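Retry 2 of 3 after timeout on previous attempt. Resubmitting C-alpha cells to design endpoint.
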C-alpha cells in the first residue's frame, strides 16, 4: 500500500450515535445520569466497605475492589462519549485513543481476574466454612488483588506493544463510541491478519474460557452443597445468584464483542454501551439491593456521619 496517498493520522473521529440534535441531547442526559449513578453507587460501596466495622469479611474486601475497577472502567470511556454527544467534531487524539484502549483493557483484565478470585472466595466460604478465615487471609487477599492488576497490565500491554507501531494514514473514522483494538486495527495501513487473530485469542477466547470456568466453578459449589445438605442449597443459591448475574453481565458483552471482533459485532454500539456504561452501574445495584448486611451498614454509616454531624 502506498502510504503517501494519505496524511499521517493525528486524531481519530468517533462516530458515536448519529441522529438529530434532540436525540443527541436525550442520549447526553441518559448517559450522564447513568454515569453519575455508577460513580455514586460504586463510591458508596467503597466507603461502606472501608469504614464499616461489620463488613470485614474477605467477600466485602473483594467487592470494594470490584467497585473501584467498575468505576475506573466506566470513567475511561463514558465521559468522553458524553462530551462528544454535544460536540460538533467528535474527535480524539491518537495519544488519547491509545490511552483509552490501554486503560480499558487494563481495568477490564484486572476485573476479569478479580471475578475469578471472588468465585474462589465463595467456594471456600460455602464448601470449607470452618477454614474460611484461615484460607482467605489478608495476605492472600492482598496477593490476589495485586495479581489481578498484574494480569490486567500484561493483558493490555501484550496488545498495545503490537498496536503502537502500526502506521495510520488517511482513514481515521472509528465506527464506535470509543477506541478499541478491533476497530482501530482495521484502520492501519498494514497487514494485520496475525494481529487480528491475536486479539481474538487474547480478549475473545480468554473471556469465553474464563466465563465457562466460572460457570463450572459455581456448578461445582452447588453440587457440593446439595450433596452435603439439601437445606443449604437455597442459601447457596441466594449467595451465588448475585455473583452469577455479575459474571454474566460482564462476560456476555465481552464474548460477543471480541470472539468475532472483526465481524458485525465489532461495531455494535449497544453492546459497547452495555459493557462500559450499564454493567458498571448494575453491579452495585445487584450487590446492595440483594444484600441486607450491606444495606444495614450503609444506613448505619449515613446515620452516624451525616445525622450527628
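Retry 2 succeeded. Sequence:
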Amino acid at each position: 500500500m502506498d502510504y503517501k496517498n494519505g496524511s499521517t493520522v493525528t486524531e481519530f473521529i468517533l462516530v458515536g450515535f448519529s441522529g438529530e440534535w434532540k436525540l443527541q441531547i436525550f442520549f447526553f442526559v441518559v448517559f450522564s445520569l447513568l454515569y453519575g449513578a455508577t460513580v455514586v453507587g460504586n463510591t458508596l460501596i467503597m466507603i461502606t466497605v472501608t469504614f464499616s466495622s461489620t463488613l470485614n469479611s474477605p467477600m466485602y474486601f473483594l467487592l470494594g475492589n470490584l467497585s473501584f475497577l467498575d468505576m475506573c472502567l466506566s470513567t475511561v470511556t463514558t465521559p468522553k462519549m458524553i462530551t462528544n454527544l454535544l460536540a460538533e467534531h467528535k474527535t480524539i487524539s491518537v495519544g488519547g485513543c491509545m490511552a483509552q484502549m490501554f486503560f480499558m483493557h487494563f481495568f477490564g483484565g484486572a476485573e476479569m481476574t478479580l471475578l475469578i478470585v471472588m468465585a474462589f472466595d465463595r467456594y471456600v466460604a460455602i464448601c470449607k466454612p470452618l477454614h474460611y478465615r484461615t484460607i482467605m487471609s489478608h495476605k492472600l487477599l492482598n496477593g490476589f488483588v495485586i495479581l489481578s492488576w498484574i494480569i490486567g497490565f500484561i493483558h493490555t500491554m501484550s496488545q498495545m506493544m503490537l498496536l503502537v507501531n502500526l502506521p495510520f494514514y488517511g482513514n481515521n473514522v472509528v465506527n464506535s463510541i470509543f477506541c478499541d483494538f478491533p476497530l482501530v486495527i482495521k484502520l492501519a495501513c498494514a497487514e494485520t491478519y496475525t494481529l487480528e487473530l491475536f486479539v481474538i485469542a487474547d480478549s475473545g477466547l480468554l473471556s469465553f474460557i474464563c466465563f465457562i470456568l466460572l460457570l463450572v466453578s459455581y456448578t461445582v459449589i452447588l453440587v457440593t452443597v446439595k450433596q452435603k445438605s439439601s437445606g443449604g442449597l437455597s442459601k447457596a443459591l441466594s449467595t451465588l445468584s448475585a455473583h452469577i448475574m455479575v459474571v454474566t453481565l460482564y462476560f456476555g458483552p465481552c464474548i460477543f464483542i471480541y470472539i468475532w471482533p472483526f465481524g458485525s459485532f465489532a461495531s455494535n454500539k449497544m453492546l459497547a454501551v452495555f459493557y462500559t456504561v450499564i454493567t458498571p452501574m448494575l453491579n452495585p445495584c445487584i450487590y446492595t439491593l440483594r444484600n441486607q448486611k450491606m444495606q444495614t451498614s450503609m444506613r448505619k454509616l449515613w446515620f452516624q456521619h451525616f445525622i450527628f454531624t
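Attempt log closed. The chain has a mean pLDDT of 83.
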